[in-house]
Design a protein that fits this description.
The complex is a heterodimer of chains A (about 55) and B (about 220). Chain A has one domain (about 1-55). Chain A is globular. A two-stranded antiparallel sheet of chain A has the order 1-2. Helix content of chain A is about 10%, strand content about 20%. Chain A has about 55 residues and is mainly beta. With about 220 residues, chain B is an alpha/beta fold. Chain B has one domain (about 5-195, about 205-210): Glucose-6-phosphate isomerase like protein, domain 1 (Rossmann fold, 3-Layer(aba) Sandwich), CATH 3.40.50. Helices cover about 40% and strands about 15% of the residues of chain B. Chain B has helices spanning about 5-15, 25-30, 60-75, 90-105, 140-150, 180-195, 210, and strands spanning about 50, 60, 85-90, 105-110, 130-135, 155-160, 170. In chain B, strands 4-3-5-6-7 form a five-stranded parallel sheet, sandwiched between helices. Chain B has a two-stranded antiparallel ribbon with strand order 1-2. In chain B, α5 links the parallel β5 (about 130-135) and β6. In chain B, α3 packs across α6 (about 180-195). Chain B starts with a helix and ends with a helix. Classes of the chains: A mainly beta (about 55), B alpha/beta (about 220). The interface of A and B includes residues 20, 23, 26 and 54 of A.
Chain lengths: ~55, ~220
């Protein structure tokens, strides 16, 4: 799977430890989340299907 | 109640739920206690709370639980079952996780999580999964921490006292109850098999919730 380059919530580059990339459960869109957004449970919205997480 | 009667009962419930679009009826969620939270509430889980009971217990919105189970099942079905790891330190979660592993082929780790299982290549039983499922983010924090280090997505069953740190899909539910955990894993297993195409209808899924329940 191709790795996302930027965090979907804040736009930060995904270089640091703790960041992750996964496919949206509803569509095939690739979602990236940075360490900071994951730690603070910042919401993410899929730009293709509008799925809200976590 | 015999096994056949139970299957018929579940089938009837499933048929009734076609109108509401829920996996099973709200009553089943209620009777298993999947909606009952704790007396504590975290800001992360606030959006999944329906109300506070007079005795101070927070009640989880089962419609949101249902939605999230569907999302989690879709998410899990995108991965190869052998690349997924489900962990449960909680005793009541161990049997449901084991049963889910048996039926779906997902790898499981019940009981003590040996530190380094996901990060140390020299450790006994080292395994690098692509997705992690935790029963309780608080109890399974070692697994969660190691998943954070290797940068894999995590699905977590969260009660009202849990934080959703490092979780990418949250299933709000009672993660302490024996019957609640059995029901949630039963639903998750059924939905995963449906998404993977291993069963065509819900009726084809024969195991009962009781088979997922841990012994007292």
């Amino acid at each position: 799977m191709k790795k996302a380059e930027k965090c979907i919530s804040c736009g930060k580059g995904l270089l640091e430890r703790g960041s992750t990339t996964f496919k949206c459960p509803n569509c095939e869109e690739i979602i990236g989340r940075c360490n900071n957004c994951r730690e603070q449970s910042v919401k993410y919205i899929c730009i293709k299907c509008g799925l809200i997480g976590p | 109640m015999t096994k056949e009667e139970k299957i018929t009962e579940i089938d009837e419930i499933t048929t009734n739920n076609k109108e509401t679009n829920m996996l099973i009826s709200e009553e089943i969620y209620m009777t298993s206690g999947a909606h009952i939270g704790t007396r504590q509430k975290t800001a992360d889980i606030k959006e999944f709370i329906y109300k506070v009971r007079n005795d101070g217990l927070y009640i989880i919105d089962v419609k949101k639980t249902d939605e999230k189970i569907k999302t989690a099942a879709k998410f899990i079905s995108k991965y190869n079952p052998e690349d997924i790891l489900a962990v449960s330190i909680r005793q009541y979660g161990q049997k449901p996780v084991k049963k889910m592993g048996e039926l779906t082929g997902i790898r499981i780790l019940d009981g003590r999580f040996r530190p380094g299982s996901l990060t140390n290549p020299n450790a006994k039983g080292f395994f690098e999964p692509s997705l992690l499922v935790v029963t309780d983010p608080l109890a399974d924090q070692q697994a969660l921490h190691e998943a954070e280090n290797i940068g894999i997505p995590v699905i977590g069953l969260c009660d009202t006292n849990n934080e959703t740190k490092y979780l990418d899909v949250v299933i709000p539910t009672n993660n302490k109850g024996r019957r609640a955990l059995a029901l949630i894993y039963w639903l998750l297993t059924r939905e995963i098999l449906k998404q993977q195409g291993k069963i065509k209808k819900y009726d084809d899924f024969k195991p009962t919730v009781e088979e997922f329940e841990a012994e007292i």
